[in-house]
Amino acid sequence: MHSLSVFKQVKHCYKCQSFKSVDLFGKNKSRKDGLADECKDCKRQQDREYAAKNREVAKQRASEWYYSNYEYARKRQNKYCANWKRVNSDKHCALQNKRRADKLKATPSWLSKEQLKDIEILYTLAKETTLKTKELHHVDHIIPLRGKTVCGLHVPWNLQYLSAEENLKKGNKLLTTTYENSTTPSASSVANNEAVNGTSRHFNKSGKDA
Predict the structure, then answer these.
(1) What percent of the chain has pLDDT over 90?
(2) CB 3.0 to 4.6 Å from 106: which of 15, 101, 142, 176, for a disulfide?
C-alpha cells in the first residue's frame, strides 16, 4: 500500500526518461492525470531552444499571453520583483541610487564597467556590515549630490559606507572629517584632488555649472 502511494507521487518524463516528483511537472488539462508529459526542466529547455530559433514569433506569443492574462502576469511579476529585491537588497539599492544620480546628471558617462562594479561592491559591503554588526549601514556620497555650492558625482571615490546614524547626522552637508573616517580607500584624498579625480561639479549662484 505504501509503495503504491509513492508510485502515484512520481511521473515519467518522456524527454529525459527520468521518474520525477509530480511537483516537477506542469499542468495540462488535456492529459488524463492533468499533468504535462515532460518535466518543467525539459519544458524550459525546449522553450529556450524554440525562442532562440524563432525570436520574433516567441516575442509576439509572450506579448499576447501577457496581455491576455494581464492581472495574473502582473501579480507574478510583482512577486518575482519583490523576492529579487529582498534577496538582492544591496544590488537593488545600488540601482536605485544610480537612477537617482542619473536624474541629477551626477553619473559621468566616462565611468568604466569596472568602476560601476566598484560602486555595486560598496553596497554589498554595506549590506554585509549591517548583517555582521546588526546595525543598519548606508552608502553615502562624501560630497553630497545636491550641495549648496558644490555637487558631488556618483563615482566610487566619492562613496563611503557608514552607519545609518552617522549618515543621518551628516545629512546633505560636506564634512571634512568624513574624508578621514571614510571606509573607501581612495576617499581620504578626495578633498585635495576634486578637479583631478572628477569628484564634484561646482556651481555659481545662478545654479549653472561654473
Answers:
(1) 18
(2) 101
